[in-house]
Amino acid sequence: KMDDDDDIPQLSSHTLAALQEFYLEQQQKEGMKNSQGFNQYSVGSIEEDWQLSQFWYSDETASCLANEAVVAAGKGGRIACVSAPSVYQKLKEQDGKDFSVCILEYDRRFSVYGEEFIFYDYNHPLNLPENLLPHSFDIVIADPPYLSEECLQKTSETIKYLTKGKILLCTGAIMEEQAAKHLGVKMCKFIPKHSRNLANEFRCYVNYASGLD
């Protein structure tokens, strides 16, 4: 296919200016961090990378989703965060003795989290380490990086492999039918917010009785 380039979204000059300003801010923050020493698990210790289609949740949303995951996983539960690093960071902040968590993420900066980090590329949904056993997580919380059926379908293979049953999916409202088709999840009332406003309306979907309604 020769026409793939047509699909690459072009940024407007306004967005580019905002991005440049954003990167300047980041450089200043990096400088501050290096001089002060900081908690590596705090939200913001790793900044979102727009080129990887990363968009952090607002603090309230990340906390709400993390709390939901802990309750859903139950005591001693295992939680997998698939492409949902801001929820992972919130879970780490809780310093939970009652649950364990893994992060499956394309962004190798998260390798600072050691063995909990699993490099993940949704294009190879089952290319996972052997020690990541099937159906070994009490809940999987996932936020596929792109709003496309292909991305959702591939990420769904990973989710279904990992979960014992419970799924918490965050994706665009426009993905409602595909989410039901691939994962059997239904939209919740809770509306996730991002730290920067996204053009697409985002929603949460679950396949169990959650606290998000």
Automatic annotation (TrEMBL):
Subcellular location(s) of the protein: Cytoplasm
Catalytic activity: L-lysyl-[protein] + 3 S-adenosyl-L-methionine = N(6),N(6),N(6)-trimethyl-L-lysyl-[protein] + 3 S-adenosyl-L-homocysteine + 3 H(+)
Keyword Methyltransferase belongs to the record: yes
One Pfam family, short name: N6-adenineMlase
One GO location term (cellular component): cytoplasm
An example Gene Ontology molecular-function term: protein-lysine N-methyltransferase activity
Keywords, sorted A to Z: Cytoplasm, Methyltransferase, Transferase
One of the protein's GO biological processes: methylation
Protein name from the UniProt record: EFMT1 methyltransferase
Organism: Eubucco bourcierii (red-headed barbet)
Gene of this entry: Eef1akmt1
